[in-house]
Amino acid sequence: MMQITKPVSFENVVSMEDLSTEDVLSFIHEAQDFKTGKQIELKRPVYAANLFFESSTRTHTSFEMAERKLGLQVVNFDPSNSSLSKGESMSDTVKTFQAIGVDLVAIRDKKNEYYKDLIADPNVHVGIANGGDGSGQHPSQSLLDMMTIYEEFGHFEGLKVAIVGDLTHSRVARSNMEVLTMLGAHVYFGGPKKWYTEEFAKYGEWMPIDDLVEEMDVMMFLRVQHERIADDENGSFSAEKYHAQYGLTAERESRMPQRSIIMHPAPVNRGVEIADELVECDKSRIFEQMHNGVFVRMAIMTSMLRNRDLIKEEY
Amino acid sequence: MKRIIANGQVLDQGELVKRDILIENGNVAEIAPSIPADGVDEVIDAKGNFVSSGLIDVHVHYRQPGQEQKETIKTGSMAAAHGGFTTVCAMPNVTPAPDSVNNIEALIKLNHTDGVVHIKQYATITTNRGGDELVDFKALKDAGAFAFSNDGNGIQKSSTMYEAMQQAAKLNMAIVEHVQDDALTYGGVLNGGAAKRLGMKEMPWVSETAQVARDVILAEATGVHYHVCHASSKHTVNVIRAAKQAGINVTAEVSPHHLLLSDANIKEDNSMYKMNPPLRGEDDRQALIEGLLDGTIDMIATDHAPHTKADKDQSIATASFGITGSETAFSMLYTRFVKTGRFTLSQLINWMTKQPASVFNMKGAGTLAAGQPADIAIFDLKDEHEIKESDYLSKGKNSPFTGETVYGGTVMTLVDGEIVYQK
In this structure, which topology does domain A12-138+291-312 adopt according to CATH? Predict the structure, then answer.
């Protein structure tokens, strides 16, 4: 397998669109190194804050774990008790953290591309890791998905990957279809066809779930919002019906090829996207994805530490 | 004549670095970060494009003499130059076949006068590439044969192969085999999956692998350098891997199409997907890639097989076997494997230059260095373009890659310091 040892260095990590094939593979290799015990030593105490203006327990906790594993000092932030409630702008919040000595921040916000203004602002120097922006990007999620696939198959070229579910509202679908295509995988889509719009058609064809399960190497399911299911098909659509029509049932799982895997960004609606008993089945990599998320976030933070020359030693 | 190729990017320890290249009397005289143009006749501005050692293809079919309507030495070698190849090895399935000193001398002469790139010539193993009457190996070697092959056909009789290997071993010449046990092909044309889907006859993988297994044992017994043409099946990769581990002098090539396509790509009865050996399954394709990566397979060779429109404008059941490869190999492989991170550029170039040169002990080919012949290809890795039939210089237009969007088009090819292709 091709080994890329070139260490990645980024001022900020906000969008998969900024990453080349080589960058993605380098992030994966570095995350794999962390998984197998790589450590870094910092030149001085480094401080990180996780500014989750939109709540996400999983991503937040994963960033915090990654930061602590790297030896960063984590400064707490609670948006509900912050000056945001007094009307402070995000930019001022970030500058405040910077002023008190924070070096790196992970940010999640409802607003698409919130990071653009921050990066363009000459007075913002903290490193920004995007933990998700509206319906836009979610690079750490995308990279952990890529790492999980790479660990399984050792390559992307020629793999068939289906993305199934609520495509239109998904950050994951968009980032992943772009990066998977760039890496030479073939992307397919499944789920309710009304969510398969032209923007997805450019990347791959839609197929019924019953055909997908027999052909794909990776079945990647997306979380479906209950309220959206209700919206669907003249309001009479239940979770049970969604599962029967688009979900991974035990019968469908039994028809998947031997080496294929099941992925989901979680939290899973058990019994909707995936049958309850399949969430932890042999083919499922759902918890492995979360496990890998920490190492990918370590690699992301490390790329920004490297960029700021804050690493004394890597071993 | 003194030329400088200026502002190119060359591979140095796996990295692309800016270098100027001075060419003098057909050889590379100097490679340096910057070379002054004083006293130079021509400066070629490579404009930041990738400057490589010219590619080597150990497997092409030029149809001359006998089937000039399909390809001539001139058109075939122009197609090679268009693809960035500067050295090719021509298979002996022409009429008359290079099975005698007279025939091979005439063919070598024609290769020299008509070819725009270096053409090395295979001699046959048996008279007229059929039967079991062995050629005069020593005389053909002395006449300039590159190696021995009956390509297009496998040697059916074990004792014929055994005796051929004994003779070739004595002369330190390679036996290059199109592995195919005719009795096991059952008249098939496609791999199992596609054959079933399209209602065609299957050419099972055993027809290839069973003969490779026989041959590596004979190679062990004789000590000959035995080279497997266009490996297609994962089982063949396994046999070669085991043979190499056992210390047997076996090498192998894989074609771009077997790396790029599987029988799942054959959606309909389209003879652009008909070649021998046929496209096999996705697991076979992956095994071929793994084989290259772990060194089981030594090199990439195109099996450039031009045919007329009439020969290909038929059902898979009846059309001629084979597709062209010279003009699409680098750009397709670069786009699908290097751009996607599966191979590095340096790995790909190695399998298309240094590896064939070292396996077949070709002097003065495969390396871009001072003192070597100036056989050079310049590729544009940044420009995205569509492969168009109208761009082919080969007489054969039979490629499944026509219409693909790729990077890595050839900008210029030089052989012995002279420009033989220019975009």
Answer: Rossmann fold (3.40.50)
